[in-house]
Amino acid sequence: MATESSYPLYPILFFISFVLVLIPLPWHLQAWNVGTCSFMLWTAVASLSWFVNSIVWKDNAINWAPVWCDITSRIIIATSVAIPASSLTITRRLYKISRVQTVMSSQKERRKELAIDLSICVGLPVFVMILYYFVQGHRFNILEQIGCFPVTVNTPPAYAFVWMWPLLLGTISMVYCIFTITAFLKRRREMSQFLNSSSQITFSRYFRLMVLAMMDTSFTIPLASLVIWLNTTQSEISPWKGLADVHWGFSRVEQIPAVLWRMERWNVVSLHLDRSLIIFCAVEFFVFFGFAEENRKNYARVYWTIMKRFGYYPKPKGSTFSNSSALRTPNLPVMSNQGGLKVLVNTDAKVEKRESFMSSIGDLSSSISVSTTYDERKDGKPHIETVTDSLPSSPDDIELPNLHNVPTTTNVSTQPPSRPARCASLGDDVV
Fold first, then answer.
1. CA–CA separation, 109 and 107 (whole Å)
2. Beta-carbon neighbour count of residue 396 at 10 Å?
3. Rg of the chain (C-alpha set)
4. Is residue 122 part of a domain?
5. 365 lies in the same domain as 266
6. Are both 175 and 39 inside the same structural domain?
7. For the whole model, what pTM was predicted?
8. Of 25, 49, 77, 83, which sits with the fewest C-beta atoms within 10 Å of its C-beta?
9. Beta strands, E only, 144-197
């Protein structure tokens, strides 16, 4: 048996889709957005099942894992309904936001909306999987290069139980989209103010959700119509004769080589569409939400959390200097002796952690300009005396020096200025 010509392209794409669509999941779970979380989870489950199938049955049609095929064949049925249902939940929520002034009015309303969303995103796909049993011809098929695939008998109940749901959900979503856009255009200013003041959904997220739902709906309606058209025109519709007739030989598993299912052109088109649409949904969602501003901040937070374990830390936002030693200059006494004039500058300041270099400079200048001394009063309370306390209270109190005692010659020292005293360590006194 031959390996598919596109192998290993499909397994790689399915694995990438599985990873990409789950990246924004934690932050959407925090927002309790059932529609987007359901979209991500169902797409991830479908990507994982197709990933395994494309590897295990890449060049054979052997029944290696019957239980796995039972599960994945129903996952294919469920995701065909679950992804359009997730889009319906998203458009329904956007429509409610465009019609009311609050996203959630109360805890009771929140629980009610959560129950409705879960019934659409989870309950409806499970319900369709149950209905699928009544039109399931036999256990499952195994297609070489494809993997496990469900078997739906082409009878009139199959259209109501399985094939009409994507078209119905897509149509309802499109109606919600039209109503939402109309309401938004009529109340653009009020909606912009409301979204900017809301802490649960921003204008950017609202717009991205709307575009995502519209794109998904735009693909769902024509593709669901194509499936119904193919089943009605390319194959014969069998009359419904009862469940016993449909389930005759129910336990059998048909193993179909690639050379047989590739003989029908529409089989090739429909099978490749089933797989490619899952990849498209994953990439589409990541493009809209994986590069959002809030997610980029979360990526940076996760990145630095990992890098800190290896000793790397983010650069402070306020630091614009390449020389890091300028950020932490020790405040030591400086002694100079030039021409016999001794100057002592007190730079003792409390070293505190600052957010920026300018704030540390401000503290340093304050410690240089104001010298503070402490003594004890008679009552035992500390007395703070600053430089301004020793200044004269009026100009008359200033004592001028006696100019007659000033020597007529100036003794200029020819000795070179002495080198400043060296400190032995950060805590030692100047010698």
1. 5
2. 6
3. 38
4. yes
5. no
6. yes
7. 0.68
8. 25
9. 147-149
